[in-house]
């Protein structure tokens, strides 16, 4: 039960490399916050700074109202789950969970009660006497979570906890983590590079790039209104299509290429060069052949529930992806007519990459 | 892999010959140690044991006069054991702690210091024996167990092995332990030491045998018979072979040799599995 406040947090390594460029963030009580971004964007560094495993070069991190910049990791009242589990290989699972409590001087009976309770929640009752290496990856991850739970910390920190698991287990554990977090109501910070995990787990999503928080918001907000070109391209799969465009003189249209003219739902300065972003799932197929966009089919990928069509828009060699429900067959070269509702068109400034 | 019958036969023949080559001297020493000195003097080395096993070994173990000194073989075995154990345990502890400091604590001179320690491999005891003796003599430690063990206890090899091992331990373990509230000492005792058990036993065995077989250093350090190690004892017995007009004490010298080899062999046999495990695998 706690809030975490980051105030202009910066990280500069000894060799002068600046990993985090001033991040402001307030994590509400009980909120599940996900840090997402490509590798090297500083998301793990930021998490480790909250944990106290990396020093803070500038700014402040506070848990509740206590500034923890100089507080040792053990005294910050946080618990962390690592990507490779980081279980003590020579200790039984019971002792793995009990170790932190013992170091904090809890009584034997209390430790036993807490460990057994955590084991019950995580369905590890039968494995307590075993060593971590005798467990499967998913079970090990549960022990690692058990080690975090028994402490009843103010904040949970997860550092890509699912990336060592196989695809199916990852989905199961994802649900389990979400479930557990909601049940315990403990504020959590979760780092991942997987956008499905990010979208599904997050109450609030922070998209990071190059040590900067590009956008902070609910997953749906970020999906619907990406603030920057980077966020637009990073969130959503298949990725958003980007096309070079120019706002028409009457300021109600954007012209893409030579012939495509799309309606806009807001007024933009005339003649401005922009990048037009359209998600593959937001095109609509016009069966009757009347629509603003015509493009020929280059390739079709059928996924069963949906079909991905790669189209030639006549702008360079770039494919434009179209995603439609159900199974469809199109011969190569078929010309499709498409339309887009104006509110699904994203415009980004060519120079700053910011949303217009 | 398929192996023909002939191939198996030749392989075994070579192995058996090699084994015999290694074992025969030991066997001859043992067989010869169970005869009377007169018999041995007349008939040379023996391939088959004689009937004086208990007599010869009993005398050498418990009768100080049999070794021509004022110390029995039993006492010498004890001295050797103290030296071997002190040497091995001391080296393990010191090199573990040194490696821990070098790997886990970021102090400015860690890397140069490690290479200084490592370069002492170029200076074996024999090279620095005079200054070492001088120091120990100056400290008044001649003829004491402390003087025997302490100057040999720093180990570049051990430090190097433990350093390599610690560096292969994932950083997340340290971080998890820090979050679990373990300080440097707790982390060392609760996590690192149990993880290094196989490593510890491997280094312990090697060092025990090296310590047991020390010759030059104990020879210089001990002028008092009471502190003789068994390796020196053998030398003393052989020395006394030609003194006086008596028939040489060959059987007893052989008996002493056999006894000197038993403890290291036992240690290696008993800890063999851990030893191999420690050298080939790191359990994580």
What does the model show?
The complex is a heterodimer of chains A (356) and B (284). By secondary structure, chain A is α+β, with helices and mostly antiparallel strands. Chain A folds into 2 domains: 231 residues, P-loop containing nucleotide triphosphate hydrolases (Rossmann fold, 3-Layer(aba) Sandwich); 109 residues, Nucleic acid-binding proteins (OB fold (Dihydrolipoamide Acetyltransferase, E2P)), CATH 2.40.50. Helix content of chain A is 24%, strand content 32%. In chain A, helix 2 packs parallel to helix 4. In chain A, 37% of the residues are buried. The model of chain A has no long low-confidence stretch (mean pLDDT 89). By secondary structure, chain B is an all-alpha fold. Chain B has one domain: MetI-like (MetI-like fold). Chain B has 14 helices and no strands. In chain B, helix 3 crosses helix 14, helix 4 packs antiparallel against helix 5 and helix 11 packs antiparallel against helix 14. Chain B is globular.
CATH class of chain B: Mainly Alpha
Structure annotation, total helices of chain B: 14
CATH superfamily of the largest domain in chain A: P-loop containing nucleotide triphosphate hydrolases
Oligomer: heterodimer
Helical content of chain A (DSSP H or I, runs of 4+): 10-25%
Arithmetic mean of pLDDT of chain B? 84
SS strand fraction of chain B = under 5%
Measured as a percent range, the helix fraction of chain B is over 70%
Shape estimate of chain B: globular
Order of helices and strands of chain A: EEEHEEEHHHEHEHEEHHEEEEEEEEEE
Q: End-to-end span of chain B in angstroms?
A: 31 Å
CATH architecture of chain B: Orthogonal Bundle
CATH overall fold name of the largest domain in chain A: Rossmann fold
Corresponding CATH architecture of the largest domain in chain A = 3-Layer(aba) Sandwich
- Annotated CATH topology of chain B: MetI-like fold
In percent terms, what proportion of residues of chain A is strand?
Answer: 25-35%
Domain count of chain B, please report it: 1
Terminal Cα separation of chain A, in Å?
A: 38 Å
- Structural class call of chain B reads mainly alpha
Strand order of the largest sheet of chain A: 6-7-8-3-9-10
């Amino acid at each position: 039960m706690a809030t975490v406040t980051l105030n202009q947090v910066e990280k500069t390594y000894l060799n002068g490399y600046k990993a985090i460029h001033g991040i402001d963030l307030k994590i509400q009580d009980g909120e599940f916050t996900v840090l997402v971004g490509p590798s090297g964007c500083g998301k793990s560094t930021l998490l480790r700074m909250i944990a106290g495993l990396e020093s803070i070069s500038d700014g402040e991190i506070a848990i509740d109202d206590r500034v923890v910049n100089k507080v040792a990791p053990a005294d910050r009242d946080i618990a962390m789950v690592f990507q490779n589990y980081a279980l003590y290989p020579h200790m039984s699972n019971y002792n793995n969970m009990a170790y932190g409590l013992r170091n904090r001087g809890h009584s034997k009976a209390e430790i036993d009660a807490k460990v057994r309770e955590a084991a019950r929640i995580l369905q590890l009752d039968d494995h307590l006497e075993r060593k971590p290496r005798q467990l499967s990856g998913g079970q090990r991850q549960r022990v690692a979570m058990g080690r975090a739970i028994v402490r009843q910390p103010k904040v949970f920190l997860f550092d890509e906890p699912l990336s060592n698991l196989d695809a199916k287990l990852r989905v199961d554990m994802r649900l389990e983590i979400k479930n557990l977090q909601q049940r315990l109501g403990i504020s959590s910070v979760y780092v991942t590079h997987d956008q499905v995990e990010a979208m599904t787990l997050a109450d609030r999503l922070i998209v990071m790039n190059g040590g900067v928080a590009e956008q902070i918001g609910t997953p749906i907000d970020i999906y619907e209104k990406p603030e920057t070109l980077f966020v637009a391209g990073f969130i959503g799969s298949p990725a958003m299509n980007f096309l070079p465009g120019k706002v028409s003189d009457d300021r109600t249209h954007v012209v893409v290429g030579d012939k495509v003219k799309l309606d806009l739902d807001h007024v933009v300065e005339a003649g401005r060069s922009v990048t037009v972003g359209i998600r593959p799932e937001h095109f609509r197929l016009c069966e009757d052949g009347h629509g603003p966009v015509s493009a020929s089919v280059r390739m079709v990928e059928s996924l069963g529930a949906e079909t991905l069509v790669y189209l030639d828009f006549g702008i360079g060699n770039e494919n434009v992806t179209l995603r439609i429900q159900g199974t469809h067959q199109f011969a190569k070269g078929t010309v499709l007519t498409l339309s887009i509702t104006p509110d699904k068109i994203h415009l980004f400034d060519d120079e700053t990459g910011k949303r217009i | 892999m398929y192996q023909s019958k002939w191939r198996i036969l030749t392989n075994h023949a070579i192995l058996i010959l090699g084994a015999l080559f290694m074992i025969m001297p030991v066997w001859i020493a043992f067989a010869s140690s169970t005869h009377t000195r007169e018999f041995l003097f007349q008939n040379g080395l023996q391939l088959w044991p004689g009937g004086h096993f208990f007599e010869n070994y009993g005398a050498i173990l418990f009768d100080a006069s049999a070794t021509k000194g004022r110390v029995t073989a039993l006492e010498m075995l004890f001295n050797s054991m103290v030296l071997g154990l002190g040497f091995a345990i001391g080296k393990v502890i010191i090199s573990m702690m040194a490696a821990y400091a070098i790997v886990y604590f970021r102090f400015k001179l860690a890397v140069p210091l490690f290479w200084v320690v490592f370069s002492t491999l170029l200076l074996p005891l024999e090279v620095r024996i005079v200054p070492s003796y001088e120091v120990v003599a100056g400290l008044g430690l001649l003829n004491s167990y402390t003087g025997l063990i302490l100057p040999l206890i720093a180990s570049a090899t051990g430090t190097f092995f433990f350093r390599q091992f610690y560096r292969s331990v994932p950083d997340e373990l340290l971080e998890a332990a820090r979050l679990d509230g373990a300080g440097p000492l707790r982390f060392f005792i609760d996590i690192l030491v149990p993880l290094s058990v196989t490593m510890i036993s491997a280094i312990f065995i090697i060092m025990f045998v090296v310590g047991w077989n020390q010759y030059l250093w104990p020879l210089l350090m001990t002028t008092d018979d009471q502190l003789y190690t068994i390796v020196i004892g053998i030398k003393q017995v052989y020395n006394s072979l030609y003194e006086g007009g008596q028939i040489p004490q060959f059987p007893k010298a052989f008996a002493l040799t056999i006894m000197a080899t038993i403890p290291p062999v036992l240690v290696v046999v008993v800890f063999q599995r851990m030893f191999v495990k420690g050298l080939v695998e790191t359990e994580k």
